[in-house]
Design goal:
Helix 2 packs across helix 3. This protein has a single domain, classed as 3-methyladenine DNA Glycosylase, Chain A, CATH 3.10.300.10. The protein is mainly beta and 212 residues long. A hairpin with a 6-residue loop joins strand 4 and strand 5. 11% of the residues lie in helices and 30% in strands. Strands 1, 2, 3, 4, 5, 6, 7, 8 and 9 form a 9-stranded antiparallel sheet that branches. The radius of gyration is 16 Å and the shape is globular. The chain has 3 helices and 9 strands, in the order αβββββααββββ. It binds a DNA duplex (13 and 13 nucleotides) through strand 3, strand 4, strand 5 and helix 3.
Length: 212
Amino acid sequence: MGECQKEIVPLPQVFYQQPTLELSKALLGCLLVKETNLGMAAGYIVETEAYIGPGDKAAHSYNNRRTARTEVMFHRSGLAYTYQMHTHCLFNVVSGGEENPEAVLVRALEPRYGIELMKTRRGIQDLNNLTNGPGKLTKSLGITMEDYGSSLTLLPLYIAKGFCPESISVGKRIGIDNSGEAKDYPWRFWITNNKFVSRHQKSEYEIKSTKC
DNA sequence: TACTAGATAGACT
DNA sequence: GTCTATCTAGTAT
């Protein structure tokens, strides 16, 4: 409302061609946008996890498992990989390039645009509880299985430039306790001290941002 | 902090 | 047909 949204445009394909771990960090601070006939909803990405293909037991594509569900992971980077989990839909960014099935899970957002719409979709008023989890953010933005395989460089679902985080924390991934040694890999990234992260956890280390 | 129910798609036998 | 799962919300301890 009254805010200047003119500069919100999708990031180019080349953005998605960096290595998955780099992409996971680069996505922090970016704006995830979904436009529907109800309006636009968007938030800054504040938490991600990397899932690195055939060698990662926690990844759906472990051991190059190629099924109807994981098919899109084998396609080009920058596509949306949505996945139904219990009653929720989770959103991943395909990475790694053709025939290299990697992905970045977006775990939490900081609400930015369309906040009233998000509250309506979630049926709650608490801003702090709106998008602080992978299932919550998809519901807030209206991301569904219909977005499976869509390009993030095109409307209605896309990622745009946001801000540059001062510090990034690194730790173990969440919710993959049955994945053997893979559960200890430090492939979770979040913006240090951001209150919208899904879970507060001790970081293994922190990265002071030098890019942007 | 710990547990449990909810309620569903996809993978596999 | 059976089992598992990148989760959430609610309740009990």
